[in-house]
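S.,

Sequence below, as promised.
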Amino acid sequence: MTMLSLRLSRALSQGRTAHAQPQSRASLLAMLLRKRAAAHNVGAEELEALLRDQILWSLPMQYDGEPKAPLSSSAE
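The prediction came back faster than expected:
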């Protein structure tokens, strides 16, 4: 997919009247994964990379070495 196609897609998306809010983080991730798979299937590398970044940004990440959050504030 070319940059022109990406711009056209964004323009069409912004022109829609109602933006449906995802009901949960899981539904948002499922939507992004479906869009990324569709972009992969048509060979839209730029769009797929954009969606991959959005998926990574929306995931709760914890890296090695980070302190884990306590399960409850009254651990004692």
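The chain has three helices and no strands.

Coffee later?
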